[in-house]
């Protein structure tokens, strides 16, 4: 458990976890990623993003061009590490239906980065 937190320079409960991979999130190109990262940068905690290969080139370009300090890109993580990161996150920000549901099961607040979702029960509250 401590290895992943040490590698990312975060502490349990003191970061937000994000995923971005859906076409509707990323097909807007660099401008779309920059808008999302600009919003993440304004959050008071680091935002950890296990980056999807589909999103990696744009995310790395945005980081290089904008110098974001609050965003921590990492390689994709396995299921158990993702559960650890989700359970100890202050908040989840995601366009993933699966992660949205996992956060809901764990009682972690989740912002759904989609215009619609198959998991409507996670939107209550």
Structure in words:
The chain is α/β, with parallel strands linked by helices. Helices cover 43% and strands 15% of the residues. It has six helices and five strands; from the N terminus they run H-E-H-H-E-H-E-H-E-H-E. Helix 3 (29-41) crosses helix 4 (56-66). The mean pLDDT is 88.
Summarize the structure.
This protein has 125 residues and is α/β, with parallel strands linked by helices. It is built from six helices and five strands, in the order αβααβαβαβαβ.
List keywords for this structure.
alpha/beta, globular, Rossmann fold, 6 helices, 125 residues, five-stranded parallel β-sheet, 5 strands
CATH fold-level label: Rossmann fold
What is the highest CATH level, the class?
A: Alpha Beta
In the CATH hierarchy, the architecture is 3-Layer(aba) Sandwich
**Domains (count):** 1
Assign the structural class, choosing from mainly alpha, mainly beta, alpha/beta, alpha+beta, or little secondary structure.
Answer: alpha/beta
Radius of gyration: 14 Å
Query: How many strands?
Result: 5
- Main sheet makeup: 5 strands, parallel
Note the topology.
Elements: H1 2-8, E1 16-19, H2 23-26, H3 29-41, E2 47-50, H4 56-66, E3 71-74, H5 79-87, E4 91-94, H6 97-106, E5 110-112
Parallel strand pairs: 1-2, 1-4, 2-3, 4-5
């Amino acid at each position: 458990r401590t290895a992943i937190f040490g590698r990312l320079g975060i502490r349990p409960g003191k970061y937000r976890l994000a995923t971005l991979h859906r076409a509707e999130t990323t097909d807007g190109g660099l401008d779309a990623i920059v808008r999302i990262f600009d919003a993440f940068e304004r959050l008071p905690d680091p935002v950890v993003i296990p980056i999807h290969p589909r999103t990696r080139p744009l995310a790395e370009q945005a980081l290089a061009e904008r110098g974001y300090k609050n965003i921590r890109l990492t390689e994709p993580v396995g299921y158990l590490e993702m559960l650890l990161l989700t359970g100890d996150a202050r908040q989840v920000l995601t366009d993933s239906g699966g992660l949205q549901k996992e956060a809901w099961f764990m009682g972690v607040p989740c912002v759904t980065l989609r215009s619609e979702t198959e998991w409507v029960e996670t939107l209550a509250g």
